[in-house]
Amino acid sequence: MTYTWDDLFWIFMVYSFVGWCAGVIANALRRKRFINTGFLNLPICPVYGVIGTAYCIFLQELEEEIFFLFLGGAVAAFLVIVITGVILEKVFNRKWWDFSQARFQFQGYLNFAHLLFFGIAAVVCIRFANPLLLDAVHMFPDKVETVLEICLGVLVLTDVVFCIATVTQMHRSAAQAVFFDYVQNFTDDFGNALTRRVQRRMTKAYPNIQLGKILEALKPKEKAAVFAQGCSFYKLVWMFVIGAVAGVAIETVFCRFSMGEWMSRSSFVWGPFSIVWGFGCSFLTALLYRYKDRSDRYIFTYGTVLGGFYEYACSVISERVFGTVFWDYSKIPFNLGGRINLLYCFFWGIAAVVWIKILYPRFSAWIEKIPMKPGKIITWLVLIFLLVDMAMSGLALYRYTDRLTDPEPDNALEVFLDEHFDDERLEKLYPNAKVTGEDGTWQKMNELN
């Protein structure tokens, strides 16, 4: 089943509402009273909508593979919940919810028992619920459906802006932040009574974000005297660089001995950087840093599952966004749609152990020896270069696939891309990449010309 943008909108809205209902019922049973557990005032919980949308984007090909559909649904929910929890914790310096007392939990962000329900939900949604839901939605006339989408979109966006303004006011009261002064003025103009009401609702639903607790968490601390101390933003940027460069080197040598030839394994048009290895390195570091002292078997299991899902998601994104497939494991036993295979998933697990236990501590120590001020400046310059390189690589790939049907450039940007990133250069940069056709078939780049 292929999902359109309209389909994804309705899936997001409906599952956000269903998730909100589930949260309210669960809290009502536990606390014996009604509590709006959502971030928004509307009866929707966007995190569930995001999870439902992720199912559609990444797992639709697994409709007939029930076990992998279940596993993928659990992993997708795991990542969405953890990322959401981390973002909210960064804003408030406190967890909005905490499962630290549960026997099987991950950094307090979730209880693993809940993932069983998300895995089952993925199977039910992809195989049964989504077709029924979309059939019901598409019964509306096109104009009526469009009007409903606009009205709901505006309503949700307004609620999001207002709740962010409320959250900002709470955080401003605690931290005296000045960046959102215009938001504060906005809320003052429309009445602090209303924002206080929303704040009371939020603190009832999530006691951890009460103002007093935020103030306690925001008490002045000694400034770090070491550059990129701990698992910080600057450290993760350098982990990306190290992983990206190391990934290209490893894959280049591997291809030389397995295929008998040297070939480019870079993801970017400028420099030897593998985006899959780079993000994978940062991704595993961020998730497993706190568990660096756990057993090798523990880290291996996490690395195998998360690495496999990560590689699968990267393959889906590259095909959906650029119409290009950069690797195909169809000829390797125990593969899943040619996107991942069991052997390479084990490699991810081994890599996680080697990285967290052996390599990361050494690289981390070297990075922390960089002087503070030069380190920050260099990191930002490197990050800007990588973002520009990433954007240019994406544009070059997009133009490559576009040239297959529209060889003549339509604007100055396409002229620039045709001059500097022609077919011959891209085929050297991405020798194993395949372009997907309208029928879903793949064909190597250098076989299309």
Structural account:
By secondary structure, the protein is mainly alpha-helical. The chain has helices spanning 5-31, 46-59, 66-92, 112-137, 142-175, 181-190, 192-205, 211-217, 233-259, 275-288, 296-322, 342-368, 372-403, 412-420, 423-429; strands spanning 105-106, 110-111, 324-325, 335-336, 340-341, 434-436, 442-444. The chain has a 3-stranded antiparallel sheet. The protein is globular, with a radius of gyration of 24 Å. Helix 3 crosses helix 4 (112-137). The protein is built from 15 helices and 7 strands.
Q: What can be said about this structure in brief?
A:
The chain is mostly helical. It contains 15 helices and 7 strands.
Spatial arrangement of strands, main beta sheet = 3-6-7
Main sheet? 3 strands, antiparallel
State the oligomer. single chain
Cα separation of the termini: 31 Å
Beta-strand percentage range? under 5%
Helix count equals 15
What is the strand tally? 7
Q: How do the helices and strands follow one another from N- to C-terminus? A: HHHEEHHHHHHHHEEEHHHHEE
The shape is globular
Class inferred from helices and paired strands: mainly alpha
Helix content: 55-70%
Low-confidence stretches: 175-184, 186-191
Mean pLDDT: 81
Rg is: 24 Å
Question: Which features does this protein show?
Answer:
single chain, three-stranded antiparallel β-sheet, two-stranded antiparallel sheet, 449 residues, 67% helix, 4% strand, mainly alpha
Topology overview:
Layout: H1 5-31, H2 46-59, H3 66-92, E1 105-106, E2 110-111, H4 112-137, H5 142-175, H6 181-190, H7 192-205, H8 211-217, H9 233-259, H10 275-288, H11 296-322, E3 324-325, E4 335-336, E5 340-341, H12 342-368, H13 372-403, H14 412-420, H15 423-429, E6 434-436, E7 442-444
Antiparallel strand pairs: 1-2, 3-6, 4-5, 6-7
Helix pairs in contact: 1-2, 2-3, 3-4, 5-6, 5-7, 5-8, 9-10, 10-11, 10-12, 11-12
